[in-house]
Design goal:
The protein has 62 residues and is mainly alpha-helical. The protein has helices at residues 10-22, 25-32, 36-50. The chain is 58% helix and 0% strand. The longest helix is centred in the C-terminal third of the chain and has 15 residues, at 36-50. The protein is globular and about 25 Å long.
């Protein structure tokens, strides 16, 4: 059985919104009590599901 997620999860969306709010993976990880790689993997899964070519977090960085 495949372990690939079939859709977006609430965790992925919540993490994405928190990164957008805090502006950094570090601050998001601290607020979620996880490490940065967990935040990164969570967003990568969301990006894969959405089929984006460029990382979502770079879209709001100026």
């Amino acid at each position: 059985m495949s372990k690939t997620p079939r859709g977006m999860t609430l965790d992925q969306l919540s993490t994405f919104l928190l990164v957008a709010k805090t502006g950094t993976f570090t601050q998001t990880a601290k607020k979620l009590n996880v490490n940065q790689s967990t935040v990164s993997r969570t967003l990568q899964k969301l990006e894969t599901f959405l089929g984006v070519r460029e990382p979502l977090h770079k879209r709001w960085v100026m």
